[in-house]
Amino acid sequence: MALALIVSGAGCNRPLPEQNSAAARLYANRCGQCHRAYNPGSLSAAMWQVQVEMMEAKMRQDHVPALTYQERDEILRYLTRNAARD
Ligand code: HEC
User: Fold this and answer.
1) Facing residues of 44 across strands?
2) pLDDT at 14
3) Which of 34, 45, 58, 60 shows its CA 20 to 30 Å from the CA of 66?
4) Which of 28, 37, 34 is nearest to 7 (CA)?
5) 70-73-76 Cα angle (round to 5)
6) Contact 45, 83 (CB under 8 A)
7) Tens digits of per-residue pLDDT, 21-76?
8) Ligand 1 center to residue 55 CA distance, Å?
9) Whose CA is nearest to atom 3 of ligand 1?
């Protein structure tokens, strides 16, 4: 899968943007449960939109508690404002 190469190639050990903010912590907690929390700058905002939807399906499959509407909104806004420019 092409996306795998893009994500793993970019920004491996860079700290997350807005480190220690509520949004960064929420993102790390909710999106770092099954794999490390990928750096927002490794994908464009449009790609994050798709990716978060795919991850919600994975959460359902794995019986991880679903994102609430507010969590989803906050995570997407966090990812979008720190996303790669496309
Ligand atoms: C229930 C476990 C689980 C949670 C929680 C989860 N993911 Fe994932 N994620 C996966 C799995 C499994 C894969 C890789 C395989 C696949 O895509 O089928 C993946 C892949 C990814 C990828 C692609 C990585 C690549 O190398 O292709 C991104 C980006 C990603 N997740 C972001 C997120 C975000 C953002 C969240 C929070 C909304 C999140 N994940 C939460 C299980 C999870």
Assistant:
1) 84
2) 80
3) 45
4) 37
5) 145
6) yes
7) 999 999 999 999 999 999 999 999 999 999 999 999 999 999 999 999 999 999 99
8) 5
9) 34
